[in-house]
Records
---
Amino acid sequence: MSDMEKAPDTGGIAVDRLRSIIERIERLEEERKALANDIKDIYTEAKSAGFDVPVIRRIIQVRKKEPAEVEEQETLFDIYRRALGM
């Protein structure tokens, strides 16, 4: 290790703290990648079981929102559809 890496504070930067933060972010990025792969596998499973994946994605998106927001969007969706003669 160079003297700069060993120094607890180099140029106003706490090297150990910076290294710790970067390593934690890197670990979380790896976990996120693994989780994304797990989610992809579940969608593949759903599709092979005959479920419509875009509908599942939409349901998940709606469940993340507040009920009032969902109701407002559905109302607007219906108004727009009627306006277009659908």
---
Amino acid sequence: MRIAVIAANGRSGKAFVEEALNSGHEVRAGFYHTDTLTPHEHLTTIKCDATAVGDLANLLNGQDAVVSFVGHTRRSTPTVQTDSMRALVTAMHTAGLKRIISLTGTGVRFPGDRITIVDRILNISISLIDPRRVRDGIDHVDVLKESDLDWTVLRVLKLQNTTPKPYQLRLHGPTKWYVSRQEVGQAALEILEHKSFIRQAPIIGKP
């Protein structure tokens, strides 16, 4: 499979790129500031502003699917996820591309979600400290819902750079308290390869 990756130089993006390459896929990785990815014969890196339709169209050229790891950093705008998703939907239509996976937090709720006490407390804390971050996650999913794309929103509670452990993708949770970034890479690739959870938002939970 030929996979375009947005924000591939972030920690979660790198974990996914490594998983995809190790599984024999070809990766076209978009980075914003500096290319920090390890060279590989099946890896192409391209500088890409995730909010610029032209950059995204170049990244998506000839690909089968796209995975977005756009998130909030100290230098990003409060609406970076929503702005990038609007641009990405446009670029995907231009490229004739339908399949997309986007990573976000469990603060984005869906009807039927099984919300644990820890999940609720942590998300309330984030909402109090940075409510625009939670709103942006919700709004970027609304952009996908309003599109005709074959989207999947992969949801996690709290990410860590730890050794991956067993997990299970659950449509409504409950979530694992802590999720390894390698688990995110594995889960996103699993969803792509199995063509699963189309127009759904699975949560990474305990097995």
---
Amino acid sequence: MVRMLQFSKYFFMTMAAMFLAVPAFAQDTAATTGPNYGPLAVGIGMGIAAGLCGLGQGRATASAAEALARNPGARPGIQLFLFIGLAFIESLTLFTFALLFVRTAH
């Protein structure tokens, strides 16, 4: 019973926030006269994505090297999953890079 009350409380709070935020996004874009921070935000996002992907790739490679040191017989399986993991990690940076071009074209 308590769990259902907590769920309903958070559900209704989320729904209220979504309904109250809609008029804020209904403004005309020509009415805004402030500076365009979009390219700056995408550039900062690219820096964060590249840095964190570098950290993730370093940790993945270190873990694979440690796993190979503990069990050299499992090399094919570890190597396969290492390459798949590195490809997924790198794809995050590439998606952010593509977003940079899409976002700055506007």
